[in-house]
Amino acid sequence: MEWNFGLLLRQPLTREQADAFDHCDALADGAISYTLAPEDPGAHSHPADPAVLRELSCDIEAPTLLDAVAEAVQRIRLIDGLHAVGVTLPDTVTLDEAAQRSGHSEQALADLSQDPRFPEPESDEGTVLYSWEGVTAFLRDIGEPVPDVPQDLVIAEQALRLVDALDGSDIAPGTLRAFGLPPA
Q: Is pLDDT at 44 greater than 60 in this prediction?
């Protein structure tokens, strides 16, 4: 399954990191992309959105969202100074993505999408996308349980925060082992 998500960075890419990114074989497939601030921000009428500059757009093929995030993080760590600190999920989803996020099988959600109360697609050209909010509202209305946040996202977020907090820290290996973590 292909997963679409945003990977939040500690800080925006520098021009040097963008150049290294563009020349890294592990990132050459286009599955991870970035937005770089203009060289002369004053020459533009609208300033670049700092949030956009700190987010990588990822489309990664993997069995689960957690595997996809791990793959993206592993790839970007090849660029000096690039550190992921969070994950975002888009507001629009395919039926497959909605099934995975909601904990339903793809077939069950496909069957439910035939219900006239199921939300209309957000787009009808190319890949069919649905509002995640609309899908969850529909599922909850018919009594189907839907987690507030997918478990894979919770785990990825916590893991990235922990790695970020441990980066550069001087914690004794015995302390890390006491928490069940490998020594850094």
A: no
Per-residue pLDDT at 167? 85
Q: What confidence score (pLDDT) does residue 131 get? A: 95
The per-residue DSSP string of 29-81 comes to TSSEE-----S-GGGSSSPPPHHHHTEEEEEEE-SSHHHHHHHHHHHHTTSTT
Please give the C-alpha separations between residue 123 and each of 126, 128, 130, 136, in angstroms, as whole numbers: 8, 6, 7, 18
Q: How far is CA 68 from CA 24, 136, 163, in A?
A: 19, 22, 17
- Where b means 16+ CB within 10 Å and e means fewer, 45-64 reads eeeeeeeeebbbbbebeeee
Q: For residues 15-27, give the mean pLDDT.
A: 91
